[in-house]
Structures are given as structure tokens and as C-alpha cells.
Amino acid sequence: MENCILKVALDTPLDFCFDYVWPLAEGDARPLIGQLVLVPFGRREVMGLIIAVHETTDVPLEKLKQAIAVRTQLAPLSPEWIALCAFAADYYQRPLGEVAIPGLPKNLRALKTTSLDKAVKKLAKADAVHDATPIAMPQLNAAQQAAADAIAGAQGFAPTLLYGVTGSGKTEVYLQAAAQILAHSIDEHNPAQILILVPEINLTPQLEANVRSRFPGVALATLHSGLAEGERMMHWLAAHLGQARIILGTRLAILSSLPHLKLIIVDEEHDPSYKQQEGLRYSARDLAVWRAHQLSIPIVLGSATPSLETWHHAQSGRYRKLELRERAVKDAVLPKVGLIDLERKAPREQMVEGISATLIAALKLRIERGEQSLLFLNRRGYAPVLSCDSCGWVSNCTRCSAYLVLHKLDKRLRCHHCGYEQRIPRSCPDCGNVDIQPLGRGTQRVEENLQMIFPEARILRIDADSTRRKGSAQEAFDSVHRGEVDILIGTQMVAKGHDFQNLTLVGVLNPDTALFSHDYRASERLFAQLMQVAGRAGRVAQKEGGSASEVLIQTRYPQHPLYSAVRKHDYDTFASELLEERQQACFPPFMYQALLRAEAKELKIALDFLHQAIACVEHDGITMNDPIPMTMTRVANIDRAQLLVECSSRPALQAFLKIWISTLRDMKSRVRWSLEVDPVDI
Prior knowledge:
The chain has a seven-stranded parallel sheet, with helices on both faces. The protein has a six-stranded parallel sheet with strand order 13-25-24-16-23-22, with helices on both faces. The longest helix is centred in the C-terminal third of the chain and has 17 residues. Helix content is 29%, strand content 23%. By secondary structure, it is of the alpha/beta class. It is globular and about 90 Å long. The protein is built from 17 helices and 30 strands.
């Protein structure tokens, strides 16, 4: 009997791996790098990842614990996958185990192997490789065909921005480029895999239906957090074993094991949903670019409103830019954008519960013609706050620096930050006044008002409240596609990716608040949001006797340059001006940032910690901004503050962060802190 030493990465905040003994009897196979291993850790048994196998260790053998079991029924994770996790851990300043282990399906990390054994046995009965021949492909226009050929014909690492207006057929370009790559990869031992990322779960069913109908003989896997654990593991294993040729997923799919990856597509690459906001705060888009570079394969970043970072790379020549300037459907044109001036052309007496007479008339016309309309308001609930005119009481959350939002249908006041909720009071808690009123409007209130204005219309609301039940979002979208809805009311869930064939009018309510945000990214996001939601209209040619597609935006600031750019569908000029402003202000992409957040029972404690963090290391060449309370200072009875760190050199910032993090970990503090590299919300 001899021993070998397993170096194992565990899901802990400790930034090193752990050594375990593995006894080897004569004839036993040595454990392999990339295999999962069950080990004792403290009083628990946990799953780890074998990073290295050694003959000896610096630790006395008698002090090492023995590993319990190696998951030999699972093919080892590849060196490339481990390198991806190592890069993410290094760049985002987290231990390797905190990246690699949580990225695996929960059932794969289970102490018992029952679920894994069943899944492996089931997949073993399936064909390893399916017929990759797609059904007949639709005819592309010249620009689409050129883009598809350029993507499929790319050699090595080739980052490409596919910049196409809404409705220009970017999805069709993805599918036909994928078809070419699959057709040229017929080696059953090295079948091509293609990863397509979308920003949100509710966009996967439509894309999945398109892919399945186009590639009926190709094994497909989907990966997102909405799957049941058993289903997620089956799909993950199909990808890991190379059986799934096309993998669709949200941001977590970028950390999946794909041994034969040949193309990565990031749809709606500008979307902030690609940035994880808890735990490992990674950008799936950025990791996708790194993974494509690592594997020397092409990557496509598609958007009608690219992020300024991506646009800057394309303008500077770092990324290749392919353009689709026209809508794919013949005679389908971009909608005309109109502004409804709430200060002059729509005075208060002409408004009906926040909806202008002009917009009401436009909705009425569409209903009469059997066409669909969309009202976009990015605020769910009935009203943002409940108030008392007599004493000034408002429905504040007792645990957060936020209001309790009125949810009239549920008869609850609810905090959208900490989840606290309570019954709607019958009278003012402070003065007893029974005439307490909602202030502002959310999607529920708009829905109620529209039902009064158009009692015969079929009205549907789609937001996070109406789609809590699994599958309810897809049911709602299906009803819109079937023509069972006259007016759709929704938040950002309806603003992108959906192909509504009979929708000719989009109305936008209350977009102005983003114009005055403290966040320098707010205007970029608002522009993208408006362009994306506008793109839901007029995606097919105008019917004879039908309405021309139109977007009506209610605003008190119609002269604002952002709205002027939206009216012209002029992303190019808008992006160029924003980039110039960013460069003058030394903001990304011309500056690199990290954000240190601190949480404590009292704000002073959090701020004191951040001041100590500034003083604890030398920071020549690094800009340390003053610690400040976060905009949402208090959440769930915890006060929060932040410290923004900036540097004009990414390598210099990374080198500093490694030293800084190590020093911060050694500081004894009552503060809970976290570091985010490349923050998107400041």
C-alpha cells in the first residue's frame, strides 16, 4: 500500500488548496486532475476538485486527513476548464474553490451518488453524436449572409461585434453560422460544440424553439437557474460529455464544461444581467471573450445597442465589426418615434391616470384594427409609495432606506430590497387619517387604469410579480404570440429579444428619472432600453390598411439629446458622444475600477473600515476615492458604504488588488466586506 497526495480546491473563503491522503493498493488507478473528490472538512464532508496529484507534501503525513471517495464515474474536468476557473478566481480576486465548485450543478456536489449514477447511465444509452444536418435554411439577405460567412470562416480567436438594428435578423445569422461550423465538424471524437448566451431566462424558450426546429437531429442542452436540479445536472453532463452540440444558457453557462467548444455567441451583449451581482461578481460576457481567446476560437457579441466598452473595442479595431443596418423582413421598417411633451402638449387635464390623450387615442386605433400594443414601465407593483396628505407619513421600510411598494392585488406593502412586507394599513399609522393615497404608478396601477379606459380590451401584464410561478412567463408570452392580447403592459422583461409579429405600437411611461441619475451609466442604459423596447414594434411589413409602427415616449424633457438620438435611431452618434464624455471624465472604458463595499450594523463602523482600508497599504498610481454611503444605504437593518478604486492601467490595478486583498483579510474587523472588479452599479 502506498499513498499519493491530492491537492484539492474547496468552496471556502480561504485562498489556498488543501492536501489529502489517498491510499493506493497495488493495481489501483491514480486519481486524476479534474476529478471530483469527497473529503472531510472540519465536521462536514464536502465535495472538492483535484487540482494536482503529488507523491509528497511539506505537511507531515500523519497530520493529513484521508480523502473519502473519488467520483470516478464522471470524466475529469479538462485542464482548460480548470484554467478558466483559475483565471476568473485570479481576476475577480476570489479563491479558486469559490469559483469552481459553485459552478457545478448542486446534484453533482451531493454526498451520495444516486442522482449522478442514474444520470450517467441514462446518458450512456443516448447516441454520443447526432446528425448535425439542419433543415432547409431561410434565404439570408446580402448583409446577413456576409456576416454568417465571416463568423463561420473565422480562424482562431476572432472577437466580432455583430451590430444590427432591432429586427435585422441577428438570430438567423447566429443559426446559419452555427450550421456551417457543425457541418464542417463531423469527427465523432471531436464534435463541435456551440455556446449561445442570452441575458435572461425568459429569452431561452423562444431561442430554444428556434434551434430545435432548425436542428432537429442535434442534441441540445439548456443551462440556467430556472431548471430543476436533476434537469440541470442532466444538461450539464450532456455538455460535459460532448453529447450536447448546442448549449443555450444564461450567464452561469459560461462556467460549464464544454470540451469541444468551437464558437461562442453572446446575444444582447450590452445587457447588465450578464454581470453577477452576488458571490463571484463576474461578467459572463468578459469571461466569454477570455474563454474564446484561451481556446483560440471565434466569439460573436451581438447587439442593436452595444455596450460602450464593446463599441470602443470595435471602433479601435480590437474587435471586428459586422453591421446589419436594415430589418430582415422585406418592407419592415424601424418604427417612427414620437415624443409626447407632458409639460406643453399634454397638460394635466388631458391625462388619464398618467396616460396622455395622444397615447390613449393611439391605443384605441390599434385595438380597432386588431393590432397589438405594448406599454413599457420599468416599475412593478401598484404604486412606489403610500402616503398621507395630512401629516406627511409615507410607507418607509423599517429595515431599508427604501419605500414599501404598494401591491394592491396582494393587499400588501412590500420592500423590493429586503423582502419585508405587511398588510396595507386602514388608516395613517401616525395621525389616523383614513384617506391615505398611493403616489406614482407601477405596472399594476397602469393595468387597472387601462381596464377602466378599455373595458373590452384583452390586457395582460408581464412582470416579476405576474410570472412567479414556474412556466408562467412562457405561458404569458405564448398568449401574446397567439394574438390573445390587445395591450401588453410590462417591465424590462418584455423589452428585448421577443419577436411580436402583430405589435405596431409601443408606449413608454415615465422614463425621465434615469436622465438625472447619479450613475454615469444611466444614460447608456436608458438609451439601450428605449431602443430595445422600440424594436418590438413593426417587425413585419405593414399590412394593407394597417397601422404604421410607432413608438410614443411620454416625457417632460423632449429636447434632451438622448431622446433626439432615440428618435433618429442613431446609436452611432450617441455612443461616440458618450465615449468622448467618458474619456474627458476618465470613466471606463478609459479607466479601470474596483469597488470595495463594507457592511455593518452602524454606518460609522463601515466608513471607518473603508478609511482604514485606504491607509493600510501604499497605493502609488492608484486613485482612492473618498468612502461614501451607498445610495441604498440600509438594507435589512445593515448599513452599507463603498470605496471606489481607479487606475488607468488594468495590470497595475490587478497587481495592487492582490496585495490589498491579502492585507484586508489580515485585518480584524467586525465589518463584512466584498470587492467587485469592473463594477457596473456604483
